[in-house]
Amino acid sequence: MKRVVLVGFPDQYNLNITNNIQNSGCCNEFTKKYTNLQFFRDYKNESADIIFLDSFSKDSEITDVAKKIRAIDSEVFIVGMSMSFNPILKETFKKEITKSDFILKTQDNKNYITQLLEGETPGTFNENKKQKSKTALVVDDFSNTLNVIKFTLEKNNINVITAGSGEEALKILNKQIIPDIIITDLNMPKMDGFELIENIRKIKEIDKVPIFILTTDFNFNKKLKAKQLNVTGWIQKPYNSNDFIKIIGNALKN
Fold it and tell me: Are 212 and 235 in contact (CB under 8 A)?
């Protein structure tokens, strides 16, 4: 049974989340605080297992508030909430706040909340726990592209690990994190996509993982080199998101 605190304005979407928490049967203590000031005045270390934190606040930015919470309580799981999708806010929040996740209040979060209260952390990647959904490693030096791909894949129940460079991707893979699929940009500084793929194919545990190149480049010789490196597919930017998901989905089924 979990102890839960919700911090945010009492709008209709928070009411939906409140009802889902109270009806889950997995919460034995539930408290609502409508302002950050009210929350910090009352909260003590280990007062809750989960905190739902509303992004709609006039006095503080949600990531800054979460950092203050983390300074007080190192163990509580923090769920950021927003009315509209903001991939940069979500990415920043999950990157800077340990033991956290980020959800849309406008979505049906009943199953998510039930899973969370039962002790799971849906929507997050845990290298020590086998996930029901597949995992993709996405590599691109352009953060906006990473955010768009991450959103598209996660919306289709695919866990996503992102890397802003080939070097960062190799560090992730050298931690023995094994994705089910790798999607990489081609033209990146320092280590380009081809060099990254060459290095990946040398790692025994992942040398057979499907790799897709996602690029604006359209060059016959480069496509030939990709084939020689046993690249699974070449996806041209700009791409249709439905076609993209179909291609990736088919590769994950094999």
Answer: yes
- Report the alpha-carbon distance of residue 48 to residue 25 in Å, rounded: 16
Are 102 and 211 part of one and the same domain? no
What's the whole-model pTM score?
Answer: 0.51
Higher pLDDT, 39 or 128: 39
Q: Confirm whether 124 is domain-assigned.
A: no
What's CA 15's distance to the chain center, in Å? 25
In a shared domain, residues 139 and 104? no
Residues with Cβ within 8 Å of 140's Cβ and at least 6 positions away in sequence, in order, are 146, 149, 162, 164, 184, 185, 188, 214
Instruction: Judge whether 153 and 123 are in contact, CB under 8 Å.
Output: no
pLDDT (tens digit, 9 = 90+) per residue, 126-184?
A: 333 334 468 999 999 999 999 999 999 988 889 899 999 999 999 999 877 789 999 99
Q: Does residue 110 sit in the same domain as residue 139?
A: no
Residue at a domain's end among 117, 151, 177:
117
